[in-house]
Amino acid sequence: MQSRPILKKNRVVILLSGRHAGKKAVVLKCYDQGTTSRKFGCALVVGVERAPRKVTKSMSKSKILRQTRMKTFIKCVNYSHILPTRFV
């Protein structure tokens, strides 16, 4: 029986270490053999660093613009630093 890879494209993962620890991300590409600069298995992930915040009626337009701004990140992460979830 052939085992299927757990980490594959579009898999939702949780980052375990570093600046983005605890953040959710989505796998874009897997490098099982590593790359020339990284000699270990890694995955290219993209995630949301800062999500939009709650907006109320009493807020001004400039404050609403600040509150609804999102920030994303893209990073190549070692397989041992990510926790795969059941979501694809």
UniProtKB/TrEMBL annotation:
Source taxon at top rank: Eukaryota
SUPFAM superfamilies: Translation proteins SH3-like domain
Keyword field: Ribonucleoprotein, Ribosomal protein
Any one GO molecular-function label of the UniProt entry: structural constituent of ribosome
Domain KOW, residue spans: 9-34
A GO cellular component annotation in the UniProt record: ribosome
GO biological process terms, semicolon-separated: translation
Family assignment from sequence similarity: Belongs to the eukaryotic ribosomal protein eL27 family.
PANTHER family per UniProt: 60S RIBOSOMAL PROTEIN L27
Protein name stated in the entry: Large ribosomal subunit protein eL27
Species: Intoshia linei
Taxon lineage: Eukaryota, Metazoa, Spiralia, Lophotrochozoa, Mesozoa
